[in-house]
Amino acid sequence: MPATSKSCVECHGKSSPGIIDHWKFSTHARKGVGCVECHLAQKGDVDGFTHYGHLIATVVTPKDCGRCHEKETTEFTHSHHAKAGNILASLDNFLTETVEGSRTPFNPHSPTPGRPDIHEVNGMASAAVGCQQCHGSKVALLAKDGGKITLDDLKPNDKGQPTNLDVLDRIAKTEDGRPKLHADTWPNTGIGRLNLDGSLGSCSACHSRHDFSPRRARQPENCGKCHLGPDHPQKEIYEESKHGVAFRDLKDHMNLNAKDWVLGKDYSQAPTCATCHMSGHSKNGGTITHDPGQRISWTNRPPVSAVLDTDKDGKLVTEADPAKRRALATFSAEEKRTNMKQVCHHCHTPDYVNGFYKQYDDFIVNYNEKFGKPGQAIVAAMRKHELLTKTEFDEEIEWTWFYLWHHEGRRARHGASMMAPDYAHWHGMFEVAERFYMQLIPQAREITKHAAESGRADQAAAVNAVTDEILARPEHKWQETGKKPDAK
Q1: What per-residue confidence (pLDDT) applies to 447?
Q2: What is the pLDDT of residue 371?
Q3: Alpha helices in 31-163 (DSSP H)
Q4: Last residue of one domain, picked from the residues 177, 212, 247
Q5: CA-CA distance, 263 to 175, in Å (whole number)?
Q6: Under 8 Å between Cβ of 218 and 206
Q7: Structural domain contains residue 50
Q8: Which helix (H) or strand (E) holds 141?
Q9: pLDDT, tens digit, 9 for 90 and up, residues 422-444
């Protein structure tokens, strides 16, 4: 126990013993890293306060972890995980803030039994409790007027300290001088959390505090907090796959407590999420990455999958010209695929791995060309010709399109990427096709019909032309042939 943390351990051992018990069995404890070493604040930190002789902060950010874990922090900062907070400006968050909830605080319409203190309610609680607990939110200090003070107000510099000093007098504090965190934003361990010091993310999203157990981070359940459900069921997909079946059977033989946990050296029984996407292996010298995107060659998140060439900041390269694309791409999709293939080759032959990727690529292109791009084009045409309102989710076809790509389409593509046939087909492409032919197309036709009847024939004709051109393609003429599969 480091001397600086002796009083912390003694006091919190009584007030919150679980924290101390977890810490005692951590690598940090064995190496003499205690409470103060992690919670240490610098003079000028907006959330810093003096606590029994030490200047500390409640929220530990990647900037703090980076004092010791510089390489890991740099890799993480460039990852898509760290950018997960971008959902705050996305269609998903509009759903939770406005459609599911209310951006205006409201009072309960009837008394809540046993809770007379509940009066003004945060209408965006669905976003705070749902989306933001995985993706992260802007951590906020409580203002004296009850409002929020975030990094947008503080404007932190590269050292994480505020440059807008005028806002400091607005911060609400306890009697002993501790800045109060706004309850709508804290607690939050979202992996793309936007911190007061300007850093992105939360290391404890994966490395649970206060033991930061490597064993736990290596197991698929660790990723299941976020990677599950109708739109990104990676945990369920993994459990269905042969990889997941092998892990459940052979977990006790996988040496999960190993110091380095190198595939091909410490274990080879089965891969977990960490094995494939982050952990070291015998073919790369045991090198770990904290940027999972370094082994992913397609992004299956958007309506249409894209080849995952990224620039120096980890952003997707969208340039179509091949020469310009190569110049902009710091990390190409082919390099990332090679990184992943190295993992696969520990258990599979090159022919097996290349065959898998051929099937996977064909599946993604099939989804893109038959359903993703056509659906996107039809909806875009309707917006261009003002047959849809500017407000999202106030018309049935907008829900249909969202379900098609965001739920069924993602499930299908993720199922194919992780060798889970049921998710690729029955929970995936079958539902994509049903949604496209039985809902999206009929709804688009109905909208254009009403538009033509109400004097907007030109707009209706323009949208119908787009739909007709798509349905005239050979892949959409299955209704005309009626052919059944060859008996052979």
Answers
A1: 98
A2: 98
A3: 35-39, 62-65, 70-77, 91-94, 125-126, 132-135, 151-154
A4: 212
A5: 53
A6: no
A7: no
A8: strand 141-142
A9: 999 999 999 999 999 999 999 99
226 and 278 belong to one structural domain: yes
pLDDT for position 312 = 86
What is the distance between the alpha carbons of residues 281 and 273, in angstroms, rounded to a whole number? Answer: 13
Q: Which pTM was predicted? A: 0.92
The structure tokens listed for 453 are 């009847």
Amino acid at 230: P
Q: Is residue 271 part of a domain?
A: yes
120: left (phi over 0), alpha (psi -120 to 50) or beta: beta
Identify the pLDDT of residue 210.
Answer: 94
User: From residue 257, how far is each of 23, 217, 220, 244, 307 by CA, in Å?
Assistant: 16, 11, 15, 19, 36
Q: At residue 480, does pLDDT exceed 90?
A: no
Are residues 159 and 253 located together in one domain of the fold? no
Distance in angstroms (rounded) separating the CA atoms of residues 215 and 221: 11
The answer to whether residue 118 is domain-embedded is no
β-pair partners for 298: 307
- pLDDT at position 309, please? 95
What's the structural domain count of the chain? 3
Please check whether residue 190 lies inside any domain of the structure.
yes
Closest CA to 191 of 260, 276, 278, 257: 278
Concatenated DSSP letters of 109-125: SS--TT-TT--SB-TTH
Judge if 286 and 297 occupy the same domain.
yes
Is-contact 346 263, C-beta < 8 A? Answer: yes
Predicted local confidence at residue 122, as pLDDT:
85
Q: How far is CA 250 from the centre of its chain?
A: 29
Q: What is the pLDDT of residues 117-157, one digit of tens each?
A: 777 788 889 889 999 999 999 999 999 999 999 999 999 99
